[in-house]
Amino acid sequence: MAHLLHTTFLPSSSSAVLPRPHSRTFRVSSGRVRVDAKLHDISMPTLSCSTMGDGKIVPWVVKSENHNLTKAAAVTASSSSTETDSTTAVKRMGRRYWNINLQEMMEAGIHFGHGTRKWNPRMAPFISAKHKGIHIINLIKTARFLSEACDLVFDAASRGKQFLIVGTNSKAADLVARAATAARCHYVNKKWLGGMLTNWSTTETRLHKLRDLRVDQKNGRFERIPKQNAAILKRQLSRLQTYLGGIKYMTRVPDIVIIVDQQEEYTALRECITLGIPTICLIDTNCDPDLADISIPGNDDAIASIRLVLNKLVHAITEGRASTS
């Protein structure tokens, strides 16, 4: 069951071997299936580039290979899953190109980390340089883990899994809502209420209340009751809509959670760890890469950076769902 995504990350015109990333055991689980894997066993996606006649370099593109082993299949397995043959899972994944462009990532500012004084030493393997007091993130590794995350969500989406996207800071909130709507995912973009997942029975009760109030408002019930009572119900509806509107159709805990800012969404991340829910997290240089199942090193403060990462994941989810139709 413990299968990994094996790829190689080398420019097509070079035979130089990049150093392996740091060894890190991360926990991947869904339902009652648990997978342990070593990141140093995972090699990099292939980068290809070419030159034009005028000597200009065509942007590099990440290409995910047809993998011999699939971690994504293991991640998205559930206790009721009947597909245990890894060969079948490999055929399901096939060969996909996510068009992860290094030049595009640089223009989005993904490589800009936090100040050197705020860094987390565990992020050292993902940092390539220092410039004017800030750390510069290694975009090769960003592309590698973003490609792996796209493979994961593609395979999960093709199996009909549920996704939850979390990002409550002011820069990510609107992007999270738009991305989740485009991919037909659940989302939280205002405030993470403690126990939203670990105390699911209470959350489910609130969701039922939200749906009932929405029906009452649509049917005009608020106009047929005393104004004072109507005002109380409207305030309840407004509050529930603000905090739970993005998950109003969620009937169970999600299969995969995508988190934009690890520091801001630490409570949500801890709940996912407690429940064994696989997580994909955009992490800056002040974060801990060992907490999430797939950590994508990158700028979590810039709007363009967040948008690019979410767009890639949303595209992969959409493609995964389309592959089953």
UniProtKB/TrEMBL annotation:
Q: Which GO terms describe its molecular function?
A: structural constituent of ribosome
Alphabetized, the UniProt keywords read:
Ribonucleoprotein, Ribosomal protein
Per the record, GO CC terms? mitochondrial small ribosomal subunit; plastid
Is Thylakoid one of the keywords?
A: no
Q: Which InterPro entries match?
A: Ribosomal_uS2, Ribosomal_uS2_bac/mit/plastid, Ribosomal_uS2_CS, Ribosomal_uS2_flav_dom_sf
The compartments listed are: Plastid
Q: Does the keyword Ribonucleoprotein apply?
A: yes
Domain of life of the source = Eukaryota
Q: Where does the signal peptide begin and end?
A: none
Q: What Gene3D superfamilies is this protein classified in?
A: Glucose-6-phosphate isomerase like protein, domain 1, Helix hairpin bin
A GO biological process of this protein is: translation
The entry assigns this protein to a family as follows: Belongs to the universal ribosomal protein uS2 family.
Can you name this protein?
Small ribosomal subunit protein uS2c
